[in-house]
Specification:
Structural class: mainly alpha
Number of strands: 0
CATH architecture of the domain at 118-155 and 363-455: Orthogonal Bundle
Radius of gyration: 22 Å
CATH superfamily of the domain at 118-155 and 363-455: eoxyguanosinetriphosphate triphosphohydrolase domain-like
Distance between the termini: 61 Å
CATH class of the domain at 118-155 and 363-455: Mainly Alpha
Helix content: 55-70%
Oligomer: single chain
Length: 455
């Protein structure tokens, strides 16, 4: 089976009762990007950690800036892909392919981190650790969940949370969410199975596959993901414990755009924050930039920025070369790599990753942030989980809970937590995760202080 571009670029909107008439002046995929850009979850990325702690250095990236830069790279990749498809006379694309593909990739890249919790990846780990702790202790409410639901809660995954935001909780709540096109949602989906399916795949001794390492959707959104996968013609994997699909070809380019931005910019940020020296930054970025000569008249900051800009352009070409080298395998769902690693500049990317793991991700400032974030998230989850225990006691009647429990009413009012969809232990857990993962770094610290009684 081979995926086809006319289906992969399906512009039907998820959840729409009636597909809107096409506007010749505004492509559906352009509309997708606008809906994401103007959404509240996207705005909150401005106060979420990328790698380095916020507020200590004014010149480093947060999640929103990273997402905007990733979208810029994705747009360039889309233009190059569209031109390449036309040049090769590949079926299923029209003369406007470069622009349409640039819009799809721009939208998917804008959204790629929209589900990330406060404090970066350490925030993901903190939420998962908390659920492991309370489930192992036999928490009265959450221990009532099914075995599959409990497995899912033991690992919080920002990609699955992002799919939930895009398809359920934002805009048209429980009716398709932002109602984005199926093509954009398919391109967004780096992972293409649920958590129970991912674990079952590994336990069965199957060969690792890039899209089965983590969950791309929660059980609550499994139906939505199935609609997307079938609508765009993604290849379903037979014999799995639950539905699983091979990745949409454009998802490899979204991943490549992310890899390009965070690898290269992490070095620039590390230099700006003082975690690496000028000499180290040049040693890493220089080869990626083709060893371009910098001007002595430029400041060190300007020289590093110049090398970063050239490196990004060359990295885009490298990833596109890898895409075309692996095109047939990608289209039949057999490609199992990363374009940033498999292109001509792959060894240089790997060198940067190794350096960042050893030097940047283990810096004292970042480690302090992780400790602070884990404590804050644990405090918030401890306190707000009790609201859901009380809600269950009131037969899931939110009005009754607030009428009978003055403390609960005050905490709901002070925090603005949305508990409307909690109707059983699993939906309560998902609602709790929606609340905590939607917090900014600053707000998580404020809520932690609130529940601890710290002014």
């Amino acid at each position: 089976m081979r995926m086809q571009w006319d289906r992969l670029l399906c512009d039907d909107l998820l959840g729409a009762d009636k597909q809107p008439e096409k506007d010749p002046s505004r492509d559906v995929f352009h509309q997708d990007a606008d809906r994401i850009l103007f959404s509240a979850p996207f705005r909150r990325l401005a106060n979420k950690t990328q790698v380095h702690p916020l507020y200590e250095v004014d010149h480093i990236h947060h999640r929103l800036i990273h997402s905007a830069e990733t979208a810029s790279v994705g747009r360039s990749l889309g233009m190059k892909l569209g031109a390449g498809l036309l040049e090769r006379e590949i079926e299923g694309v029209g003369a406007d392919a470069p622009h349409r593909l640039s819009y799809v990739l721009q939208a998917a890249c804008l959204a790629h981190d929209i589900g990330n919790p406060p404090f970066g990846h350490s925030g993901e780990e903190s939420i998962g650790k908390w659920f492991c702790r309370v489930l192992d202790a036999g928490h009265g409410l959450f221990s009532q969940m099914s075995a599959e639901e409990q497995v899912e809660l033991r690992r919080f995954e920002g990609n699955a949370q992002g799919f939930r935001i895009l398809t359920r909780t934002e805009m048209y709540r429980n009716e398709g969410g932002m109602r984005l096109s199926l093509a954009t949602l398919g391109s967004f989906s780096k992972y293409t199975c649920s958590e129970p399916a991912a674990r079952a795949w590994k336990a069965a001794g199957n060969a690792p596959y890039v899209s089965f390492k983590k969950p791309g959707f929660y059980l609550s959104e499994a139906g939505y993901f199935g609609t997307v996968a079938q609508g765009v013609g993604m290849i379903e994997v037979a014999g799995g414990a639950a539905p699983m699909w091979r990745r949409h070809p454009l998802a490899f380019l979204v991943e490549a755009a992310d890899d390009i931005c965070y690898n290269i910019v992490d070095v620039e940020d590390a230099f700006a924050s003082g975690d690496v020296s000028y000499e180290e930054a040049v040693k890493l970025l220089g080869p990626l930039a083709g060893n371009k000569t910098v001007k002595d008249s430029q400041s060190k900051e300007e020289q590093v920025s110049y090398l970063r800009a050239i490196a990004i352009g060359r990295a885009i070409d490298s990833c596109m070369a890898a895409f075309w080298d692996n095109y047939d395998a990608i289209m039949v769902g057999r490609y199992n790599g990363a374009l940033s690693e498999d292109g001509p500049l792959g060894p240089l990317f790997n060198a940067i990753r190794a350096f960042c793991v050893e030097r940047v991700f283990t810096s004292a400032r970042k480690t302090k942030l992780e400790i602070l974030g884990e404590r804050a998230i644990g405090n918030v989850l401890d306190a707000f989980s009790e609201l859901y225990v009380g809600l269950e006691r009131c037969d899931w009647d939110l009005d009754r809970l607030q009428a009978e429990d003055d403390s609960a009413r005050k905490l709901i009012r002070a925090s603005g937590i949305d508990m409307r969809d909690a109707r059983d232990p699993y939906s309560a857990a998902r609602s709790l995760c929606d609340f905590v993962s939607g917090m900014t770094d600053r707000y998580a610290l404020q809520m932690s202080d609130l529940v601890l009684g710290i002014r």
